[in-house]
Structure formats: structure tokens, C-alpha cells
Amino acid sequence: MPHAPVTIFIIEDNALYSELLAYKLTQNPDYTVRQFSSAQACFQHLATEKPDMVTLDYSLPDGTGEQVLRQLQERLPNVPIIVISAQEDVNTAVGLLKQGAYDYFAKDAETPDRLWHSVLKVREQLALRRENQRLREQVGQKFDPKQAIIGNSQPIKELFTLIEKAARTGITVSVSGETGTGKELVAKAIHYRSVRQQQPFVAVNVTAIPRELLESELFGHEKGAFTGAVNRRIGRFEQAHGGTLFLDEIADLDLNLQAKLLRVLQERELTRVGGSKTISFDARLIVATHRNLEQEVKEGRFRQDLYYRLLGLPIVLPPLRERGTDVLLLADAFLRAFCAQNHLPPRQLSEAAKQQLLHHSFPGNVRELKAVVELAAVLAEDELIGPADLSLRNGSGGNGEIPADESLRQQIARIVQRYLDVHNGNILHVAQLLKIGKSTIYRMIQNNEVSVR
Ligand SMILES: Nc1ncnc2c1ncn2[C@@H]1O[C@H](COP(=O)(O)OP(=O)(O)OP(=O)(O)O)[C@@H](O)[C@H]1O
């Protein structure tokens, strides 16, 4: 890890002692040291420069150690402050440490050395914090929605607008869509576009955690709260403090936990399992489900009051089969990335393979498409991927997955709709491809059986 330069402010009215500390610290050329003989002089300087740490003399002419410490903490949150005092009083030391001082030293011959070691520690923490911030910024750049979310279709263009709107405020967002449509990707995009982007994005899939552990996973637990709780554990809500908490498959939360979640959201406070202290948190919430939450409410599986709390800004992700030629854009991007990562020569889809992808129903949506093209890149004998390389479920596309209870009329509408989506609503072209009259399609539009999106 590179050495971080450090700026240290010394607030000390004894000029000789101040020089002594400064002399020691300036032996390291990476340290910038500023000396102030009063708290006021230091406060004035804060407008032009901020320190990475401060040493504070306990008895200054313009305030007690406690007062100046508080004023400094308000102006410099998260900056370590070491208090140095001429009197060795344990109670004062304990009081200052409780108030949040980083350390407390009595003034003696050892102080400059002790200070030297403290600066080394602070410097290490600082380097870690800077590295962390750099990595977060990198991740933030990766999540430019227009780069991370591939698609050019009308619903995806509308999605970009909604992401920008959602990112401008802290409103709760509820994302719905079939499995693999990109719900988590959208949640990340909102987080990394928002003012919270430097803070954590914490994702929890409600169905992935055993029911009996979920409460403690979300809200944490105190030591001894239940058998096996050997230590205190911070829950996901607290981990996401300052950032975003993404709760996936929210419809699968059991009714008990729904009640607790509602309380927590209403009060913006939680209690760890086995604890009695209330802890306030500040996490932006994004929830997702592949189910129809409204229907879940009607059928009594989801609390109505929680539904209204969580609805916030609803974002509905269309299934891949309704995104027209986005299928090809996505396939191309996945192929390029996969070949580059695996040092394969670039591969391309043949015209026949493209037609198959365009007319497949993709019940697993984008996730399925990704898996199919990656496997095709592996299976293909040469650089051109043909239909035989595509392992599509339900045969070679066109009919896709048809529910058993669908009438013939509904099935025809479904097929016509898919062709309209893929061919940008070109009715004439679709009529020719399907060998049906274009008036049939117009009639279906009039009857609201299909639409040109
Ligand atoms: N528009 C898109 N552009 C690029 N990649 C996408 C897009 N949509 C989804 N993906 C990719 O598809 C995969 C599935 O996406 P994601 O996990 O976000 O879906 P999901 O809807 O949250 O799935 P689930 O319902 O199973 O939780 C991921 O690898 C994701 O990066």
C-alpha cells in the first residue's frame, strides 16, 4: 500500500512544547505539520486546509479540553484527535476517550515518541480508507447505467429515465419483473448513480437465507441471543448504513418478519435480536420480486400496509422477449466479454442463429441468454456460431413456453406480439413472415390482443 501523506495540526499554547512535537514529526518528509497557539487560530485555518489528525493541548487559553474537543469534532468528523495534558488524571482521560478522543497522553519525555507511533497507526488507517474510496469510485464508474445495462428498446430507454429519477432522491424503489430480467442490476445502477454511491450497496436475497436465521441476518443479534450466537452480529440494515439495502424476493418474507420490517421502516429504528437498545439506521431501500405483489396482498400473503410502504417508485422490467432486437445487442456483448475473458478468438452469430435467438421466448430472460451464448462460444467449432451451437430450451424457438391453460387465440396473440416486438412493430413485415393477413393483425390491435410498443 502506498504511503499516504499526512497533515497534522498541533494546537498547543506552550511554544517550546509545540516545537518539540513538530520537530519530532517533521523528521518524516511525508508529514505536513501546522502549529496553532489557540483553538481559534486553528478554527480560522480550517477554511483553507483540513488536517488528517490533530493533537490538542488540554489546557488552552480559549477553552477547556472537552469544549475544544467537541468543537473540533463538529468541524472535523472522523478526524482522529489526540489530547495531550500536563495533568495525569485518569478520570479526565477516560472522559475524553468516551467523548471520542482518539487517544490521551500525559505530557512527559515519552510523548513525542508515543505521538510518532500514533501517527503511524493513523496513517495506515488513512491509506486503507483512501484505497477503499478509490475502489468504490472505480465500481461507481463501472455502473454507469448506460454501460452496464444493455438495450436500445423503448422499455429500456424508459428504464434509463426512471433510474435517473430514482437516483435523484432517496425514495424507496420496488422493482418487479420475471427472473433474470436484471432487477439487481437496476438496483445497483440506482445506488451507484445516487449520492450514496460511496457508501455500501448491500444485497439480501430473502429466499436464500433459512427462515429462522433471516431476522438476525437483517437486523443483527446480540451475543447469546440464541444457541450459536457466540458474538454480537451487525445485521444487513446496519451494514448498509449510509448506503442502499437491496431486498430481493421480498414477496417471500414471512408474515412475522413483514410485521417487524414494517415497524422498522416506520420508526427508522431497529432492535437487534436478543437486544433491547433501539438503533437508528439510514439505509435507502430497494426491493424486488418476480411475483405480483398486488396479487400477493389480495391473497393475504403480503401485508397491505407494508405493500404501500414499499411500493415507492415502482419499476417494472419487461421480459426479454418483449425487448425486440435487444436480444442481439445483449448476445453480442456477452459473446465479446466471454471470448475476451477466456482468450478465445472473437466469435459471431450466424444469421440463422440470430433468427433463432430473436424468436425464442427466454423464460430465464437475460440470465438464460447469457448462459446460452457463453456455452455456444465454447461449443462452436469455428468463429461463426450456428443454430446447432445454441442450446435453447423448448426447441428452436418460435413457440417458447406456452402455458397449458392458454387458448389457441391467446397463443396466436402471443406469437404475433413476439414478432411485432422483434420487428419493431412493422405490421406488414410480420404479416408476411407469419403468412397471415395484415388486417388480422390490425384487428388484433383493435381488440387489444396485441400492441405496437
Ligand atoms: N440489460 C442488461 N444488460 C446487461 N446485462 C444484464 C441486463 N439485464 C440483466 N443482465 C445480466 O443478467 C444476469 C441476471 O440479472 P439480475 O441478477 O440482475 O436479474 P434479476 O432479475 O435480479 O434475477 P432474479 O429474479 O433471479 O433475482 C446478470 O448477470 C446481469 O448482469
From TrEMBL:
One of its GO terms (biological process) is regulation of DNA-templated transcription. The modification 4-aspartylphosphate is found at D57. Residues 149-378 form the Sigma-54 factor interaction domain. PANTHER family: PTS-DEPENDENT DIHYDROXYACETONE KINASE OPERON REGULATORY PROTEIN-RELATED, TRANSCRIPTIONAL REGULATORY PROTEIN. It comes from Solirubrum puertoriconensis. Residues 7-122 form the Response regulatory domain. SMART domains: AAA, REC. One of its GO terms (molecular function) is ATP binding. Gene3D superfamilies: 1.10.8.60, 3.40.50.2300, P-loop containing nucleotide triphosphate hydrolases. This is Regulator. Keywords: ATP-binding, DNA-binding, Nucleotide-binding, Phosphoprotein, Transcription, Transcription regulation. Transmembrane segments: none annotated.
